[in-house]
Amino acid sequence: MSEKKEAAVTPADPDATATDVVADAHAPAEPDTPPNDAPDAKPAASTRGGGKLVPGLLALCVIAIGVLGWQVWTVRGKLAQTQLQMTERLSAGDDMAREARAAARHSRDMVDGLQGKVSLLEAKAREAAGQAAALDSLYQEFSRTRDERAMAEIEQAVTIAGQQLQLAGNVEAALIALQSAEARLAALGDGRLATLRRSLARDIEQLKAAPRVDVAGITLKLEMLLESVDGLPLAFAHEAHPNPAPETHEKGDPMADPLGYAKAFALDVWAEVRAMVRVERLDAAADPVLLSPSQSTYLRENLKIRLLTARLALLGRDARTFDADMKQAVGWVERYFNLNDSRVSAALDSLKALQGTQIAPKQPALTETLSMLKTMQGRSGDKAPAATAPTEEPAQTQSAPTPADPSPAPAPADAPPAAAEAVAPAVEAAVEPAPAAEPHADTTHAATPPASE
Protein backbone atom coordinates (compact mmCIF):
# COMPACT_ATOMS: atom_id res chain seq x y z
CA MET A 1 0.00 0.00 0.00
CA SER A 2 2.73 2.36 0.82
CA GLU A 3 4.53 1.53 -2.44
CA LYS A 4 1.50 2.46 -4.45
CA LYS A 5 1.27 5.76 -2.74
CA GLU A 6 4.84 6.48 -3.48
CA ALA A 7 4.34 5.67 -7.11
CA ALA A 8 1.38 7.96 -7.26
CA VAL A 9 3.13 10.75 -5.45
CA THR A 10 6.38 10.43 -7.40
CA PRO A 11 6.65 13.30 -9.81
CA ALA A 12 6.69 12.69 -13.48
CA ASP A 13 9.87 12.36 -15.35
CA PRO A 14 10.93 15.74 -16.51
CA ASP A 15 11.99 14.32 -19.85
CA ALA A 16 8.57 12.82 -20.48
CA THR A 17 6.26 14.70 -22.72
CA ALA A 18 2.75 15.71 -22.04
CA THR A 19 1.54 13.24 -24.59
CA ASP A 20 3.24 10.44 -22.75
CA VAL A 21 1.67 11.64 -19.57
CA VAL A 22 -1.75 11.79 -21.13
CA ALA A 23 -1.23 8.39 -22.67
CA ASP A 24 -0.22 7.04 -19.34
CA ALA A 25 -3.19 8.68 -17.81
CA HIS A 26 -5.59 7.09 -20.22
CA ALA A 27 -3.88 3.73 -20.13
CA PRO A 28 -5.90 1.13 -18.14
CA ALA A 29 -4.64 0.50 -14.73
CA GLU A 30 -3.15 -2.86 -14.16
CA PRO A 31 -5.26 -4.99 -11.98
CA ASP A 32 -3.93 -4.97 -8.58
CA THR A 33 -4.53 -8.33 -7.00
CA PRO A 34 -4.59 -7.63 -3.42
CA PRO A 35 -3.70 -10.40 -1.20
CA ASN A 36 -6.38 -12.62 -0.05
CA ASP A 37 -5.90 -11.49 3.38
CA ALA A 38 -6.91 -7.83 2.57
CA PRO A 39 -10.15 -7.78 0.64
CA ASP A 40 -11.57 -4.91 2.57
CA ALA A 41 -8.83 -2.40 1.72
CA LYS A 42 -9.38 -2.28 -2.15
CA PRO A 43 -12.22 0.22 -2.51
CA ALA A 44 -10.61 2.68 -0.20
CA ALA A 45 -7.26 2.62 -2.03
CA SER A 46 -8.78 3.10 -5.53
CA THR A 47 -10.85 5.99 -4.34
CA ARG A 48 -7.87 7.84 -3.02
CA GLY A 49 -5.66 7.20 -6.07
CA GLY A 50 -8.29 8.37 -8.60
CA GLY A 51 -8.89 11.58 -6.76
CA LYS A 52 -5.21 12.59 -7.06
CA LEU A 53 -4.70 11.67 -10.76
CA VAL A 54 -7.59 13.59 -12.34
CA PRO A 55 -6.32 17.13 -11.62
CA GLY A 56 -2.93 16.30 -13.06
CA LEU A 57 -4.47 14.89 -16.15
CA LEU A 58 -6.66 17.94 -16.52
CA ALA A 59 -3.66 20.21 -16.16
CA LEU A 60 -1.80 18.26 -18.77
CA CYS A 61 -4.78 18.41 -21.07
CA VAL A 62 -5.05 22.16 -20.65
CA ILE A 63 -1.35 22.59 -21.32
CA ALA A 64 -1.55 20.36 -24.37
CA ILE A 65 -4.57 22.23 -25.67
CA GLY A 66 -2.79 25.57 -25.11
CA VAL A 67 0.29 24.38 -26.94
CA LEU A 68 -1.85 23.08 -29.79
CA GLY A 69 -3.81 26.33 -29.91
CA TRP A 70 -0.64 28.36 -29.95
CA GLN A 71 0.77 26.23 -32.74
CA VAL A 72 -2.49 26.41 -34.68
CA TRP A 73 -2.61 30.21 -34.21
CA THR A 74 1.00 30.53 -35.34
CA VAL A 75 0.41 28.34 -38.38
CA ARG A 76 -2.75 30.27 -39.26
CA GLY A 77 -0.88 33.56 -39.00
CA LYS A 78 1.84 32.28 -41.26
CA LEU A 79 -0.77 30.93 -43.69
CA ALA A 80 -2.60 34.26 -43.69
CA GLN A 81 0.64 36.15 -44.32
CA THR A 82 1.56 33.72 -47.08
CA GLN A 83 -1.91 34.06 -48.58
CA LEU A 84 -1.66 37.84 -48.45
CA GLN A 85 1.69 37.74 -50.18
CA MET A 86 0.35 35.36 -52.80
CA THR A 87 -2.65 37.63 -53.34
CA GLU A 88 -0.41 40.66 -53.79
CA ARG A 89 1.82 38.76 -56.16
CA LEU A 90 -1.16 37.49 -58.15
CA SER A 91 -2.54 41.02 -58.33
CA ALA A 92 0.81 42.33 -59.52
CA GLY A 93 1.00 39.49 -62.04
CA ASP A 94 -2.49 40.34 -63.30
CA ASP A 95 -1.48 43.99 -63.71
CA MET A 96 1.66 43.00 -65.54
CA ALA A 97 -0.32 40.61 -67.73
CA ARG A 98 -2.81 43.37 -68.57
CA GLU A 99 0.04 45.74 -69.39
CA ALA A 100 1.70 43.05 -71.48
CA ARG A 101 -1.58 42.39 -73.33
CA ALA A 102 -2.06 46.13 -73.91
CA ALA A 103 1.54 46.48 -75.13
CA ALA A 104 1.13 43.43 -77.35
CA ARG A 105 -2.12 44.81 -78.75
CA HIS A 106 -0.48 48.19 -79.38
CA SER A 107 2.53 46.47 -80.94
CA ARG A 108 0.22 44.43 -83.15
CA ASP A 109 -1.60 47.58 -84.21
CA MET A 110 1.72 49.26 -84.91
CA VAL A 111 2.91 46.22 -86.87
CA ASP A 112 -0.30 46.25 -88.92
CA GLY A 113 0.08 49.96 -89.56
CA LEU A 114 3.75 49.59 -90.43
CA GLN A 115 2.94 46.72 -92.77
CA GLY A 116 0.43 48.95 -94.52
CA LYS A 117 2.99 51.73 -94.71
CA VAL A 118 5.60 49.29 -95.99
CA SER A 119 3.24 48.05 -98.70
CA LEU A 120 2.46 51.66 -99.64
CA LEU A 121 6.16 52.48 -99.69
CA GLU A 122 6.83 49.42 -101.83
CA ALA A 123 4.16 50.58 -104.27
CA LYS A 124 5.70 54.05 -104.30
CA ALA A 125 9.14 52.53 -104.74
CA ARG A 126 7.93 50.45 -107.69
CA GLU A 127 6.32 53.54 -109.20
CA ALA A 128 9.49 55.55 -108.62
CA ALA A 129 11.54 52.75 -110.16
CA GLY A 130 9.30 52.76 -113.22
CA GLN A 131 9.58 56.53 -113.51
CA ALA A 132 13.34 56.33 -113.08
CA ALA A 133 13.53 53.69 -115.79
CA ALA A 134 11.39 55.83 -118.08
CA LEU A 135 13.55 58.87 -117.38
CA ASP A 136 16.66 56.82 -117.99
CA SER A 137 15.31 55.62 -121.32
CA LEU A 138 14.42 59.18 -122.27
CA TYR A 139 17.85 60.33 -121.18
CA GLN A 140 19.50 57.58 -123.20
CA GLU A 141 17.37 58.53 -126.18
CA PHE A 142 17.69 62.31 -126.16
CA SER A 143 20.94 62.97 -124.34
CA ARG A 144 24.38 62.78 -125.84
CA THR A 145 27.77 62.29 -124.42
CA ARG A 146 30.47 64.93 -124.54
CA ASP A 147 32.01 63.49 -127.69
CA GLU A 148 28.65 63.18 -129.40
CA ARG A 149 27.79 66.79 -128.60
CA ALA A 150 31.17 67.88 -129.90
CA MET A 151 30.65 65.89 -133.09
CA ALA A 152 27.21 67.47 -133.50
CA GLU A 153 28.71 70.95 -133.08
CA ILE A 154 31.44 70.16 -135.60
CA GLU A 155 28.91 68.81 -138.08
CA GLN A 156 26.78 71.92 -137.64
CA ALA A 157 29.79 74.18 -138.26
CA VAL A 158 30.77 72.27 -141.41
CA THR A 159 27.16 72.37 -142.63
CA ILE A 160 27.02 76.14 -142.10
CA ALA A 161 30.30 76.52 -143.99
CA GLY A 162 28.90 74.51 -146.90
CA GLN A 163 25.73 76.60 -146.95
CA GLN A 164 27.72 79.82 -146.94
CA LEU A 165 29.81 78.58 -149.86
CA GLN A 166 27.01 77.15 -151.98
CA LEU A 167 24.20 79.63 -151.30
CA ALA A 168 25.91 82.93 -150.55
CA GLY A 169 29.45 82.32 -151.77
CA ASN A 170 30.71 83.88 -148.54
CA VAL A 171 34.20 82.47 -148.25
CA GLU A 172 35.01 84.45 -145.11
CA ALA A 173 32.02 83.09 -143.17
CA ALA A 174 32.76 79.54 -144.35
CA LEU A 175 36.39 79.90 -143.32
CA ILE A 176 35.40 81.13 -139.85
CA ALA A 177 33.00 78.17 -139.42
CA LEU A 178 35.64 75.63 -140.45
CA GLN A 179 38.25 77.19 -138.18
CA SER A 180 35.84 76.98 -135.22
CA ALA A 181 35.20 73.30 -136.00
CA GLU A 182 38.95 72.64 -136.19
CA ALA A 183 39.45 74.39 -132.82
CA ARG A 184 36.69 72.22 -131.31
CA LEU A 185 38.45 69.10 -132.56
CA ALA A 186 41.74 70.31 -131.12
CA ALA A 187 40.06 70.86 -127.74
CA LEU A 188 38.80 67.26 -127.72
CA GLY A 189 42.30 65.87 -128.19
CA ASP A 190 41.00 62.51 -129.42
CA GLY A 191 43.45 60.61 -131.59
CA ARG A 192 40.61 58.81 -133.35
CA LEU A 193 39.55 62.12 -134.91
CA ALA A 194 42.94 62.83 -136.50
CA THR A 195 41.64 61.91 -139.97
CA LEU A 196 38.73 64.30 -139.62
CA ARG A 197 41.04 67.02 -138.40
CA ARG A 198 43.33 66.56 -141.42
CA SER A 199 40.33 66.80 -143.73
CA LEU A 200 39.22 70.04 -142.06
CA ALA A 201 42.74 71.47 -142.32
CA ARG A 202 42.81 70.61 -146.03
CA ASP A 203 39.46 72.34 -146.58
CA ILE A 204 40.68 75.42 -144.70
CA GLU A 205 43.78 75.64 -146.88
CA GLN A 206 41.68 75.30 -150.03
CA LEU A 207 39.38 78.09 -148.87
CA LYS A 208 42.33 80.32 -148.11
CA ALA A 209 43.67 79.73 -151.62
CA ALA A 210 40.27 80.15 -153.30
CA PRO A 211 39.71 83.33 -155.38
CA ARG A 212 37.89 86.09 -153.55
CA VAL A 213 35.15 88.24 -155.03
CA ASP A 214 35.13 91.89 -154.01
CA VAL A 215 31.38 92.13 -153.60
CA ALA A 216 31.55 95.49 -151.87
CA GLY A 217 33.75 97.00 -154.59
CA ILE A 218 31.58 95.72 -157.42
CA THR A 219 28.45 96.93 -155.67
CA LEU A 220 30.00 100.38 -155.25
CA LYS A 221 30.85 100.53 -158.97
CA LEU A 222 27.29 99.56 -159.89
CA GLU A 223 25.96 102.28 -157.59
CA MET A 224 28.16 104.88 -159.30
CA LEU A 225 26.97 103.72 -162.73
CA LEU A 226 23.34 103.96 -161.58
CA GLU A 227 23.91 107.53 -160.47
CA SER A 228 25.62 108.51 -163.77
CA VAL A 229 22.98 107.09 -166.14
CA ASP A 230 20.82 110.21 -166.06
CA GLY A 231 23.77 112.42 -167.06
CA LEU A 232 25.01 110.37 -170.02
CA PRO A 233 24.32 112.11 -173.34
CA LEU A 234 22.57 110.23 -176.09
CA ALA A 235 24.21 109.78 -179.47
CA PHE A 236 21.60 111.77 -181.49
CA ALA A 237 21.38 114.63 -179.00
CA HIS A 238 24.86 116.10 -179.45
CA GLU A 239 25.44 119.36 -181.29
CA ALA A 240 26.37 118.94 -184.97
CA HIS A 241 29.47 120.52 -186.34
CA PRO A 242 28.66 123.93 -187.84
CA ASN A 243 28.54 123.98 -191.59
CA PRO A 244 30.88 126.38 -193.36
CA ALA A 245 29.29 129.71 -194.07
CA PRO A 246 28.02 129.94 -197.59
CA GLU A 247 29.71 132.28 -199.93
CA THR A 248 28.06 135.61 -200.12
CA HIS A 249 27.51 136.97 -203.51
CA GLU A 250 27.07 140.58 -204.16
CA LYS A 251 23.80 141.10 -205.74
CA GLY A 252 23.98 143.58 -208.47
CA ASP A 253 21.28 145.03 -210.46
CA PRO A 254 19.13 142.16 -211.64
CA MET A 255 18.30 144.03 -214.73
CA ALA A 256 21.96 144.56 -215.51
CA ASP A 257 23.02 140.92 -214.81
CA PRO A 258 19.94 138.73 -214.51
CA LEU A 259 21.92 135.46 -214.72
CA GLY A 260 24.20 136.35 -211.83
CA TYR A 261 21.28 137.49 -209.77
CA ALA A 262 19.46 134.21 -210.29
CA LYS A 263 22.55 132.24 -209.37
CA ALA A 264 23.02 134.20 -206.15
CA PHE A 265 19.38 133.72 -205.26
CA ALA A 266 19.66 129.98 -205.81
CA LEU A 267 22.70 129.77 -203.58
CA ASP A 268 20.90 131.60 -200.78
CA VAL A 269 17.92 129.28 -201.01
CA TRP A 270 20.18 126.22 -200.91
CA ALA A 271 21.97 127.52 -197.83
CA GLU A 272 18.67 127.98 -196.04
CA VAL A 273 17.55 124.48 -196.98
CA ARG A 274 20.80 123.00 -195.70
CA ALA A 275 20.38 124.84 -192.43
CA MET A 276 16.91 123.36 -191.98
CA VAL A 277 17.89 119.72 -192.66
CA ARG A 278 20.82 117.91 -190.99
CA VAL A 279 22.11 114.60 -192.23
CA GLU A 280 24.53 112.64 -189.97
CA ARG A 281 26.17 109.26 -190.22
CA LEU A 282 25.87 106.95 -187.18
CA ASP A 283 27.76 103.65 -187.02
CA ALA A 284 24.95 101.47 -185.66
CA ALA A 285 23.00 98.37 -186.46
CA ALA A 286 19.76 98.23 -188.37
CA ASP A 287 17.71 99.17 -185.28
CA PRO A 288 16.68 102.78 -185.20
CA VAL A 289 18.65 104.95 -182.83
CA LEU A 290 16.61 108.06 -183.15
CA LEU A 291 14.38 108.13 -180.07
CA SER A 292 11.71 110.44 -178.89
CA PRO A 293 12.06 112.10 -175.45
CA SER A 294 9.73 109.53 -173.85
CA GLN A 295 11.68 106.69 -175.41
CA SER A 296 14.90 108.23 -174.13
CA THR A 297 13.46 108.15 -170.60
CA TYR A 298 12.50 104.51 -171.03
CA LEU A 299 15.99 103.75 -172.28
CA ARG A 300 17.63 105.27 -169.22
CA GLU A 301 15.18 103.49 -166.85
CA ASN A 302 15.74 100.16 -168.57
CA LEU A 303 19.47 100.64 -168.26
CA LYS A 304 19.04 101.31 -164.52
CA ILE A 305 16.91 98.18 -164.18
CA ARG A 306 19.64 96.16 -165.86
CA LEU A 307 22.21 97.52 -163.42
CA LEU A 308 19.94 96.81 -160.42
CA THR A 309 19.35 93.26 -161.65
CA ALA A 310 23.09 92.82 -162.03
CA ARG A 311 23.58 93.94 -158.43
CA LEU A 312 21.00 91.42 -157.20
CA ALA A 313 22.69 88.71 -159.27
CA LEU A 314 26.00 89.69 -157.70
CA LEU A 315 24.60 89.29 -154.18
CA GLY A 316 23.02 85.98 -155.17
CA ARG A 317 26.18 84.72 -156.91
CA ASP A 318 24.17 84.31 -160.14
CA ALA A 319 26.96 84.65 -162.68
CA ARG A 320 24.74 83.89 -165.67
CA THR A 321 22.27 86.68 -164.94
CA PHE A 322 25.07 89.09 -164.04
CA ASP A 323 26.90 88.48 -167.33
CA ALA A 324 23.67 88.83 -169.35
CA ASP A 325 22.80 92.14 -167.70
CA MET A 326 26.31 93.50 -168.15
CA LYS A 327 26.33 92.49 -171.82
CA GLN A 328 22.98 94.14 -172.44
CA ALA A 329 24.06 97.33 -170.65
CA VAL A 330 27.28 97.53 -172.68
CA GLY A 331 25.32 97.06 -175.93
CA TRP A 332 22.84 99.81 -175.04
CA VAL A 333 25.58 102.27 -174.09
CA GLU A 334 27.50 101.57 -177.29
CA ARG A 335 24.37 101.90 -179.45
CA TYR A 336 22.39 104.76 -177.98
CA PHE A 337 24.87 106.99 -176.15
CA ASN A 338 27.50 109.36 -177.40
CA LEU A 339 30.78 107.50 -177.32
CA ASN A 340 32.73 110.66 -177.93
CA ASP A 341 31.74 111.98 -174.53
CA SER A 342 34.23 111.28 -171.71
CA ARG A 343 31.51 110.31 -169.24
CA VAL A 344 30.08 107.74 -171.64
CA SER A 345 33.55 106.38 -172.34
CA ALA A 346 34.29 106.02 -168.61
CA ALA A 347 30.94 104.32 -167.98
CA LEU A 348 31.50 101.97 -170.89
CA ASP A 349 34.96 101.04 -169.63
CA SER A 350 33.53 100.28 -166.17
CA LEU A 351 30.77 98.14 -167.66
CA LYS A 352 33.25 96.17 -169.77
CA ALA A 353 35.49 95.63 -166.74
CA LEU A 354 32.53 94.37 -164.71
CA GLN A 355 31.43 92.18 -167.61
CA GLY A 356 34.63 90.17 -167.38
CA THR A 357 34.47 89.76 -163.60
CA GLN A 358 33.95 86.22 -162.28
CA ILE A 359 31.48 86.66 -159.43
CA ALA A 360 30.93 82.94 -158.73
CA PRO A 361 34.29 81.16 -158.79
CA LYS A 362 34.34 77.45 -158.14
CA GLN A 363 34.51 76.82 -154.41
CA PRO A 364 35.91 73.70 -152.74
CA ALA A 365 33.25 71.16 -151.80
CA LEU A 366 33.03 69.86 -148.23
CA THR A 367 31.44 66.54 -149.12
CA GLU A 368 34.39 64.47 -147.92
CA THR A 369 34.37 66.06 -144.47
CA LEU A 370 30.59 65.76 -144.16
CA SER A 371 30.60 62.09 -145.20
CA MET A 372 33.36 61.38 -142.69
CA LEU A 373 31.31 63.04 -139.94
CA LYS A 374 28.25 60.97 -140.89
CA THR A 375 30.29 57.78 -140.77
CA MET A 376 31.70 58.56 -137.33
CA GLN A 377 28.27 59.44 -135.95
CA GLY A 378 26.86 56.21 -137.37
CA ARG A 379 29.55 54.19 -135.60
CA SER A 380 28.94 55.97 -132.30
CA GLY A 381 25.20 55.37 -132.68
CA ASP A 382 25.77 51.63 -133.23
CA LYS A 383 27.93 51.43 -130.11
CA ALA A 384 25.38 53.24 -127.94
CA PRO A 385 23.38 50.79 -125.77
CA ALA A 386 19.75 50.49 -126.65
CA ALA A 387 17.36 51.82 -124.04
CA THR A 388 15.35 49.01 -122.46
CA ALA A 389 11.78 49.49 -121.40
CA PRO A 390 11.11 49.21 -117.67
CA THR A 391 9.79 45.79 -116.64
CA GLU A 392 7.00 45.59 -114.12
CA GLU A 393 7.55 43.53 -111.00
CA PRO A 394 5.28 40.50 -110.55
CA ALA A 395 2.37 40.98 -108.25
CA GLN A 396 2.85 39.73 -104.73
CA THR A 397 0.85 36.66 -103.78
CA GLN A 398 0.09 37.97 -100.33
CA SER A 399 -0.30 41.71 -100.06
CA ALA A 400 0.06 43.39 -96.74
CA PRO A 401 -3.16 44.94 -95.39
CA THR A 402 -3.40 48.59 -96.27
CA PRO A 403 -4.95 50.67 -93.52
CA ALA A 404 -7.91 52.80 -94.42
CA ASP A 405 -6.47 55.77 -92.58
CA PRO A 406 -2.84 56.52 -93.45
CA SER A 407 -2.33 58.31 -90.15
CA PRO A 408 -0.72 56.15 -87.42
CA ALA A 409 -2.73 54.88 -84.46
CA PRO A 410 -2.22 56.95 -81.29
CA ALA A 411 0.32 55.38 -78.97
CA PRO A 412 -0.75 54.69 -75.36
CA ALA A 413 0.54 56.75 -72.51
CA ASP A 414 2.93 54.08 -71.32
CA ALA A 415 4.33 53.36 -74.80
CA PRO A 416 8.01 54.16 -75.23
CA PRO A 417 8.70 57.44 -77.08
CA ALA A 418 11.20 55.75 -79.39
CA ALA A 419 8.41 53.77 -81.06
CA ALA A 420 6.41 56.91 -81.82
CA GLU A 421 9.50 58.61 -83.17
CA ALA A 422 10.20 55.59 -85.38
CA VAL A 423 6.66 55.65 -86.79
CA ALA A 424 6.71 59.38 -87.68
CA PRO A 425 9.37 59.23 -90.43
CA ALA A 426 7.72 56.20 -92.01
CA VAL A 427 4.36 57.99 -92.08
CA GLU A 428 5.92 61.12 -93.59
CA ALA A 429 7.65 59.04 -96.25
CA ALA A 430 4.43 57.18 -97.04
CA VAL A 431 2.23 60.27 -97.23
CA GLU A 432 4.73 62.33 -99.22
CA PRO A 433 3.92 61.93 -102.95
CA ALA A 434 6.53 60.75 -105.34
CA PRO A 435 8.05 63.53 -107.46
CA ALA A 436 6.63 63.74 -110.95
CA ALA A 437 8.99 63.13 -113.82
CA GLU A 438 9.81 66.32 -115.68
CA PRO A 439 9.81 65.78 -119.41
CA HIS A 440 12.97 67.18 -120.82
CA ALA A 441 12.99 66.69 -124.41
CA ASP A 442 16.22 67.87 -125.68
CA THR A 443 15.49 68.74 -129.29
CA THR A 444 18.41 69.87 -131.39
CA HIS A 445 17.56 72.33 -134.13
CA ALA A 446 19.83 72.72 -137.07
CA ALA A 447 21.13 76.25 -137.25
CA THR A 448 20.41 78.01 -140.51
CA PRO A 449 22.74 80.70 -141.78
CA PRO A 450 21.33 84.23 -141.97
CA ALA A 451 20.34 85.35 -145.40
CA SER A 452 22.97 87.58 -146.85
CA GLU A 453 21.77 90.91 -148.06
Q: Which ranges are low-confidence, i.e. pLDDT below 50, for 5 or more consecutive residues?
A: 1-23, 25-42, 284-288, 384-453
- Computed structural class: mainly alpha
* Beginning-to-end CA distance, first to last residue: 175 Å
Strand content range: under 5%
Could you say which overall geometry the principal axes of the C-alpha atoms support? rod-shaped
Question: Assembly type of the shown chains?
Answer: single chain
List the secondary-structure elements in sequence, H or E.
HHHHHHHHHHHHH
Portion in helices: 55-70%
Q: How many individual helices? A: 13
Mean pLDDT: 71
Overall radius of gyration = 72 Å
Number-wise, the strands total 0
Q: Please summarize the sheet with the most strands.
A: none
What does this structure look like?
- By secondary structure, the chain is mainly alpha-helical.
- Among the domains are: 126 residues; 89 residues; 98 residues.
- It has 13 helices and no strands.
- Helix 4 packs antiparallel against helix 12, helix 9 runs antiparallel to helix 10 and helix 10 packs antiparallel against helix 11.
